[in-house]
């Protein structure tokens, strides 16, 4: 059986420091904006992924995961659940180590595919809530 609590610890403490945040734009009212700032405070490099490819929190944005010209460790997904599965598949293709579906983002089939591909996976949780618990 897969231990999601252990996966959370692996991702946040050992999973790498480059987080592609899908759905992150310059809109400060959106949860992705605030969560990305928390990740930065904990030493993570955030990479905004949004069709507008905006620079956010001082980091260059990209329109898609495929457009990022370097490796990412974790793909943090802030999109509607109906769009999350394809993002998880792109994360696998990109070579990410883990996929994190934010609070309210649920796709059981994508979860199973991502796990079958060997990636750590967390669903319907928030790293900004989880990371302070580790320290």
Model description:
- The protein has 135 residues and is an alpha/beta fold.
- Helices cover 39% and strands 16% of the residues.
- The chain has a five-stranded parallel beta sheet with strand order 2-1-3-4-5, with helices on both faces.
- Strand 4, helix 4 and strand 5 form a beta-alpha-beta unit.
- Helix 1 packs across helix 5 and helix 3 packs parallel to helix 4.
- 37% of the residues are buried.
Measured as a percent range, the helix fraction is 25-40%
How would you spell out the order of helices and strands?
HEHEEHEHEH
- Give the neighbour order of strands across the main sheet: 2-1-3-4-5
Number of strands: 5
Q: Please give the alpha-carbon distance between the first and last residues.
A: 26 Å
In terms of DSSP E residues, the strand content is 15-25%
Shape: globular
Biggest beta sheet attributes: 5 strands, parallel
How big is the Rg? Answer: 13 Å
Low-confidence stretches: none
Number of helices, where a helix is a run of at least 4 consecutive DSSP H or I residues: 5
Topology, please?
Blueprint: H1 4-14, E1 18-22, H2 31-41, E2 45-49, E3 74-77, H3 81-94, E4 98-101, H4 108-116, E5 120-122, H5 127-134
Parallel strand pairs: 1-2, 1-3, 3-4, 4-5
Overview features:
alpha/beta; 135 residues; 39% helix
In short:
With 135 residues, this protein is α/β, with parallel strands linked by helices.
